[in-house]
Amino acid sequence: MKAENINPFIQSISEVFESMLDSKVAVKDLHLSAADEGHPDIIGLIGLSGTAKGIVALKLPVPTALAIIGKMVGTGFKSVDSSVIDGVGELVNIVAGNAKAKFEGQSISLSLPTVVRGSIYRLQNLGEMVWLSLPFESELGEFSLEVSFKQMSTTKQEVAHASACGR
Q: Domains in the chain and their CATH numbers?
């Protein structure tokens, strides 16, 4: 994974936290990770397809999820309920959508978000792809954004040309 492919995700997290949550974030130690490294309480997942393929995973401990989603919707949560789960799905959707917009000249589509709750799960890599873990800290708590991303060689223009030629 190239550095220029991860920067949009770092920028997106920073922008979303500043604009929606009035909170600053700091990346701790960017590193490669195993797909099933760490088992947070809640994970929001969204797939990428098109001229790039991959998965974006937002991993949150319960206290952090409660603080973030509570601030997003302007109410306090004492426990995880359907509103918190929906909020995590919406948050990963906003972060991935904001990052997607930064890939100029690319045709990237997002899947619907999925939220997994609990600590017993296993994420599998997509073939030869690796996960890059971006641990963040904020006043709302620590969390990580993990990205498995592969830039495909085809640009939006190449897709349009291939379609016009009947390929």
A: 3-164 (3.40.1550.10)
